[in-house]
């Protein structure tokens, strides 16, 4: 996980000012940077690591001395054996210790959430490499051709990770179903934990490495969206914010900018192709400075809040992660 974070940071460092659309509902919402987008996955991976640490902490309990379910008549020093075996503590209830497979379920759940994150990134890579996007090009080492169509370059590894996420989900839900309604303490059903556990270990950690490899040698079309987003409707929110700073209540600003967008749609033009006179017919508050908002690059610099795609803040976050992660 850390190695994938480091690779994402390396790519992000090169693209703190590479403009891409940010989406909601898979509709263009606001411009962001590619680095900002990748940093979102760095955050997800950090939570994945925290979940794995929780799994390790929960499993760090010695069951030795619990017997079949009710402890032992022998005068065993369980603290001594736990210490010698490297456990942090002893189980406090022998019946629970023998019955417990929560540590397996915790691990399968952590793998499932981790694979869900990888599946989202995989889907975006598939979109980015499509002819419709033409934003990213993967190296030949991580793509395949078509057996029929010679022009094809397919992101098969991303598709496989996306597909294998369902496999890990199935492992988690399958063993959860196995544990359902089992009486305390031991049941032979428990032996069914091995296959989903080992398969999920292999699938998840292999997927992490494959994802890292996809970012090595990735070519990013840095200028793909810069011009396209200039004057794009995704800058409409900036115009609404501008009106709010002029003292207009946001509800009214939202309505006014909606009228601006509607006008641009009627004229089949971008926002930056509207004239000041046309804007003034919607609201006399509009002036020359409003026309300067329709630039995607400056849109990022206008962001003021912590955690935003402002290039300076993005660079600070990259530096933070580079310092935090082991080298």
Description:
The protein is mostly helical. The chain folds into 3 domains: about 1-60 and about 100-225, Fumarase/aspartase (Central domain) (Fumarase C, Chain A, domain 2, Up-down Bundle); about 60-100, no CATH class; about 230-295, Orthogonal Bundle (Ribonucleotide Reductase Protein R1, domain 1), CATH 1.10.40.30. It is about 55% helix and about 5% strand. The chain has helices at about 1-15, 35-60, 80-85, 95-100, 100-130, 155-180, 195-215, 225-230, 235-245, 250-265, 275-280, 290, 295-300, 310-325; strands spanning about 20-25, 25-35, 60, 90, 135, 220. The strands form 3 sheets. Strands 1-2 form a two-stranded antiparallel sheet. Strands 3-4 form a two-stranded parallel sheet. α5 (about 100-130) runs antiparallel to α6, α5 (about 100-130) runs parallel beside α7 and α9 packs antiparallel against α10 (about 250-265). The longest helix is centred in the middle third of the chain and has 27 residues, at about 100-130. The radius of gyration is 27 Å and the shape is elongated. About 30% of the residues are buried.
């Amino acid at each position: 996980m850390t190695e994938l974070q480091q690779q994402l940071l390396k790519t992000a460092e090169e693209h703190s000012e590479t403009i891409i659309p940010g989406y909601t509902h898979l509709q263009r919402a606001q411009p962001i940077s590619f680095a900002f987008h990748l940093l979102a996955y760095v955050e997800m991976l950090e939570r994945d690591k925290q979940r794995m640490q929780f799994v390790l902490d929960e499993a760090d309990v010695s069951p030795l001395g619990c017997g079949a379910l009710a402890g032992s008549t022998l005068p065993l020093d369980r603290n001594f054996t736990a210490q010698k075996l490297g456990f942090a503590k002893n189980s406090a209830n022998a019946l629970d210790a023998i019955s417990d497979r929560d540590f397996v379920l915790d691990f399968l759940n952590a793998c499932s959430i981790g694979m869900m994150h990888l599946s989202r990134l995989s889907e975006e890579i598939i979109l980015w490499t499509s002819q419709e996007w033409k934003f990213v090009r993967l190296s030949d080492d991580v793509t395949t051709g078509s057996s029929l169509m010679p022009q094809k370059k397919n992101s098969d590894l991303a598709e496989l990770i996306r597909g294998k996420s369902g496999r890990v989900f199935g492992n988690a839900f399958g063993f959860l179903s196995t544990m359902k309604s089992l009486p305390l303490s031991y049941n032979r059903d428990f032996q069914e934990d091995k296959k989903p556990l080992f398969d999920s270990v292999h699938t998840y950690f292999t997927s992490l490495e494959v994802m890292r490899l996809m970012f090595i040698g990735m070519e990013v079309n840095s200028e793909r969206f810069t011009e396209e987003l200039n004057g794009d409707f995704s800058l409409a929110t900036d115009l609404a914010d501008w009106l709010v700073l002029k003292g207009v209540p946001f509800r009214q600003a939202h309505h006014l900018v909606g009228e601006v967008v509607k006008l641009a749609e009627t004229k089949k033009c971008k926002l930056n192709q509207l004239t000041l006179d046309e804007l003034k017919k919607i609201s006399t508050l509009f002036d020359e400075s409003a026309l300067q908002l329709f630039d995607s690059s400056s849109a990022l610099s206008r962001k003021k809040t912590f955690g935003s795609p402002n290039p300076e803040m993005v660079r600070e976050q990259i530096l933070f992660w580079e310092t935090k992660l082991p080298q």
